[in-house]
Amino acid sequence: MLKLTKVSKIYEGKVAYRALTDIDLEIEKGEFVAIMGPSGSGKTTLLNIISTNDSPTTGQVEIDGRDPHKLKKNALAKFRRNELGFIFQDFNLLHTLTVEENIVLPLTLDGTRVKEMKEKAHQLAKSLGIEAIMSKRTYEISGGQAQRVAIARAMIHEPKLLLADEPTGNLDSKASKDVMGMLVSINEREKTSLLMVTHDPQAASYSDRVVFIRDGRLHSEIHRGESRQAFFQKIIDMLSLMGGDGNDFSSVRV
Amino acid sequence: MTFRQFAFNNVLRNKRLYIAYFLSSLFTVMVFFTFAIFAFHPAFSGGKVNQNALIGMAVAGGIIYVFSFFFVLYSMSSFLQSRKKEFGLLIMFGASNKQIRWMVFLENILIGFFATVGGILTGLVFAKAILLIAENVLIIEESLYFYFPTWAIIITFISFIFLFFCISLFVSFILRTNKLVDLIKGDKKSKGEPKASVILSVFAALLIAVGYGVSLYVEGLQVVAALIPVVLVVTLGTYLLFTQLSVYIIRRLKGNKLVFWRKTNMLLFSDLSFRMKDNARTFFMVAIISTVAFSAIGTLYGFQSYLTKGMKEVNQYTLSYSPWGNDSNETIENDLSIINGILEEEKIDSKMETLELTYFDNLIPDARVLVVKASDYNRFAALIGESEVHPAEQEAIVVEQSSAMLSEGPKASELLMDSPIALKDGTIVLPSQVVDTEVLNIMTGYYVVHDNVFEKFTSPDYRDFIAVWKAEDAGKEQLIEVGSKINEAIEYKVTAIDYQLYEIDKTFGPILFIGLFIGIVFFVSAGSFLYFRLFTDLEGEKQKFSSIAKIGLTDSELKKVVNRQVALLFFSPIVVALIHGAVALTALSNFFNYNLTVEASIVLGSFTLIQIIYFLIVRYFYVKQVMRAVM
Questions:
Q1: Is residue B410's pLDDT more than 60?
Q2: Cβ separation of A94 and B552 shorter than 8 Å?
Q3: A chain contacts of residue B263, beta-carbon cutoff 8 Å
């Protein structure tokens, strides 16, 4: 589904800065992968390269067998609109539009029939529990609701790959849990591949696999076993190992 | 960091945000300064230009100044609107109202100062151009050379520093700090739509229709009486048109999902309705200001053309001479020889014709009528290339000069046509047809009869004399020179058309120039309003488009949305103003009873062209800015 081969990114400037070095990453169809790492490790750069917002200095990106970085600008926009879904930390909803209008926006740009758009929007809204706020404006809803609206917008055109940048970054733990639960259920139901960048070990523990990067290189990865609780613990341990102090290690469990 | 430093750095390090406000202030200063350069030119202070023109210029300066005040005030308040969130943050961090007012005051003083200095500097660059234009439009004996405009600089500097000071004081005083939460959410919350009611929308259409109807219906002096009520009605109608009808239409469009949810329409209309209140106000102002500009320039241009073209039509001859009623033959002889002498002196080849005019009392009731011999008429006609007439012996041809007629009263020809002439020997001469020419400059109309019949008209009741000259290939300058010389030698008796036109242009030039200047100032300011409207929202637009671009928006789709948005903003008020202007000029032409179609088309057409060019330029920069934010 998604395949990165030897991707490197160097930011030119007065002092050239190497943000990513030889990243190899592969995501299967329907897989849910979280990327973690300390601040400045290159997580967001990586996501930007995958989401085609930024281009790699060297290396190859392949989404569903195609290299989006080789597409022309207009084709790239269409590619994004049709194949990718985006969820942002700050939601990126348009405040001139209502919730419903925000959700159907990607479809209107493609010129889908109104009836179809309405149906899809309502289905999604129902499954995300935001039916009641469909005609509200974005400043009238809470952060958790806004993120659910953003998920609905990202999902409405049934993308193959859903990219999430700190989706729980602005939410409290309850809202985070709700949002993560929804992402997982979408992942399972629609078999949408999911790539999420996060700081939040809780959120990461919902994924199938967590990839750690540090200083722009792949550091390690851990797979989820049977229990989410144990996975969460492993993530915490790994984070502490990577950047934390000794006392961040969890106490030995029985 | 002191608070003062904070305020200064806030401006200096945030140039982008302030640039639109700064530029429109600078522009205002520049306009005033350019005008001042012109008004304070040494060529005017020498006392050679008449006092009226100077007073006119002072008034014009005042109008520009007052207008600048409102323009800067408007720019500033919409600029402050766009910074609500910033104020909210400051208050949240504990800034007092007083401090915020102080900050706004300092900022405005800072911007005002640089705008004044910058406006004067750019004005200096344009000074030469404006003086050149003025020199060509105005007819001034000496040239308007470039000079260092000390007075203009001083006056502009003081006036505008004062203006910015007042406005800063004013704005910082009225700056209301609403609820904190409103301020912080300020940029996300719509200012709301004006209330749209069907009744008021219909009323808007009705008001405009009534205004138009009245102004097209009235004629002559009624136009003056109808002027103020019509202006009020149409202004109110225009206001309602933009606040009601446009709101109503956009609401309907938004309600219709088939239209609203179609491709990029959603982005376009949601934006329009989001800023409905601001837009309605801007549209209204721009429409009214442009209408004023169109009408002012159209009126002046039309008036000038009315004066000069009318005179040219009536006076076909280079010179025409008519003595006073009691001048003796010797005086006439003397005058003619003086005129011929001057013509010779200036080496102008010309042909002269003279004619003794014979008037008769008893041909038609209550009036004296001129009767001219056909051969005499044909002599004069040949001079200006008019066709000859050949009446039969029993026939009289009625000649009238409709271009010199006033609009009131029955036509001269009607009276003459109805009056058969009974001669003493019993012959009856019947008026057969009406010819409309300028051959003899007689307003009341006259008969042309066959030479043989003319002999039978005996003992005229009144005699007059007329002499005309038609110059052959003489330069305009020469003719003006001749005219001025003859005018000095023989006052009032000679009509030298080229000289008189020159005199009219000379007195009319400054008025036309000032009118043109103010009209252009208004028009360009209207454009600046639009520009300002666009660029106040630019930051928000950039953000919006960059979020959509992340989801995927092709360049062509983006351009399409932006294009339509800018086009709507630029053309909807101008189209209304053009229609208003056209109606106003039609009313004017009814007033003068003079066809102004050509003049109105030229004025309105050139404004449309300028607006299109302006639109293209602004669109180019706007699209560029948005595209840069997206990438």
A1: no
A2: no
A3: 108-109, 111
**B173 and B44 in one domain?**
yes
As a whole number of angstroms, the distance between CA A219 and CA A213 comes to 5
* Residue type at A233 in one-letter notation: Q
Question: Which residue shows structure tokens 């051969």?
Answer: B375
Decide which of B283 and B521 is more confident.
B283
CA dist B260 and B253 (Å) reads 6
Domain ranges, residue B486: 319-503
Delimit the domains of chain A by residue range.
2-248
Residue pairs between chains A and B whose CB atoms are closer than 8 Å: 78
Higher pLDDT: A38 or B146? It is: A38
Q: A241: distance to nearest CA of chain B, Å?
A: 35
Partners of residue B465 on adjacent β-strands? B356
What is the distance in angstroms between the Cα of B267 and the nearest Cα belonging to chain A? Answer: 8
The whole-number average pLDDT for the span B222-236 is: 83
B180 and B32 share one domain = yes
Q: Among the three residues B459, B486, B503, which one is the final residue of a domain in this structure?
A: B503
**Nearest alpha-carbon partner for B615 in B603, B623, B626:** B623
B189, B257, B549: residue with CB nearest A139? B189
Whole-angstrom distance, CA of residue A25 vs CA of residue A23 = 6
| Statement to judge: residues B488 and B591 lie in one domain | no
Q: d(Cα B561, Cα A55) in Å, to the nearest integer?
A: 27
* pLDDT per residue as tens, chain A (254 positions): 899 999 999 988 888 888 899 999 999 999 999 999 888 888 888 988 888 888 899 999 999 888 888 888 888 888 888 888 888 888 888 888 889 888 988 888 888 888 888 898 998 898 888 999 998 888 889 888 998 899 899 888 888 899 998 888 888 888 888 889 888 988 888 889 999 999 888 899 999 999 999 888 898 899 988 888 889 988 888 888 876 554 545 545 44
Q: Which residues in chain A are closer than 8 Å to B550, comparing Cβ atoms?
A: 51, 53, 80, 86, 88, 92
Specify whether the CB–CB gap between B429 and B395 falls below 8 A: yes
- Residue predicted with more confidence, B561 or B344: B561
Of A92, A111, A118, the CB nearest to B550: A92
**Residue that is last in its domain, among B482, B503, B524:** B503
Cα separation, B256 vs A65, whole angstroms: 41
Q: What is the ipTM of this complex?
A: 0.76
On whether both B542 and B574 belong to a single domain, the answer is yes
In CATH terms, A2-248 corresponds, of 3.40.630.30, 3.30.230.10, 3.30.420.40, 3.40.50.300, to: 3.40.50.300
Q: Name residue A98's beta-bridge partners.
A: A137
Q: Which of B363, B353, B365 is nearest to B398 (CA)?
A: B363
Task: Indicate if B460 and B518 belong to the same structural domain.
Answer: no
- 3 state SS for B71-105: HHHHHHHHHHHCCHHHHHHHHHCCCCHHHHHHHHH
pLDDT digits (tens, 9 = 90+) for B552-570: 888 888 888 889 888 988 8
Q: Are residues B518 and B599 in the same domain?
A: yes
Residues B111 and B245 in one domain: no
- Angle at the Cα of B106 (from B103 to B111), degrees rounded to 5? 125
Q: Which residues of A touch B257 (CB under 8 A)?
A: 114, 118
User: Is the pTM above the cut of 0.90?
Assistant: no
B287 and B330 part of one domain:
no
Substitution target in A72, A81, A93, A108 with the highest count of B β-carbons within 10 Å is A108
How many domains is chain B built from?
A: 3
